[in-house]
Amino acid sequence: MLAPFPLNPILPARDGPRAEAFYRDVLGLRQLSPPGADPMAFAAGNDTMIVLSELRDRTPPPYPVVAFLVTGIDDVVAGLLDRGVEFVDPAPASFGGQEGVIAGRIIDFGPVRSTWLRDSEGNILALNEIVNPPA
To answer: Which of 31, 67, 68, 88 qualifies as a FRET site for 45, CA 20 to 30 Å off?
Structure first.
């Protein structure tokens, strides 16, 4: 029943103006909501969006809550590092039974390469690049 409808995750922000600046200026997402509004909405690829709302007492979970499906993950990571983004150090892990190989900030699971970053509010965002889709 919900299959034809797009998703839009909603993330907590401890500091609304700081989060607004991060998603707009650092991640480069187009802001859909008026400046200073709460909630804040930002456009991402394929007509998706992400929404943030100021919830000062909310503690972000210790795992990714949003994942961006990217191409050219090495260039995306380099660009975000240039903008001062904090990445989470990858730890040995497996995905779908495939042991990951860590190379710098990226872990290669074979069919997918991944990395994780923290937004200005402590939320963990994943970047995933599908490189060898399963047959």
So the answer is: 88
Q: Tell me the CA end-to-end span of the chain in Å, nearest whole number.
A: 28
Which structural domain range is residue 111 located in? 10-130
Number of domains into which the chain is organized: 1
Q: Which candidate, 67, 74, 112, 116, places its Cα nearest to that of 94? A: 112
Q: What is the CATH number of the domain that holds 65?
A: 3.10.180.10
Residue 13 to residue 31: CA distance in whole angstroms: 16
Whether 2 is covered by a domain: the verdict is no
- Residue pLDDT, tens place only, 93-104: 767 677 889 999
Note the residue count of the chain: 135
- The pLDDT, as a whole number, for residue 134 is 64
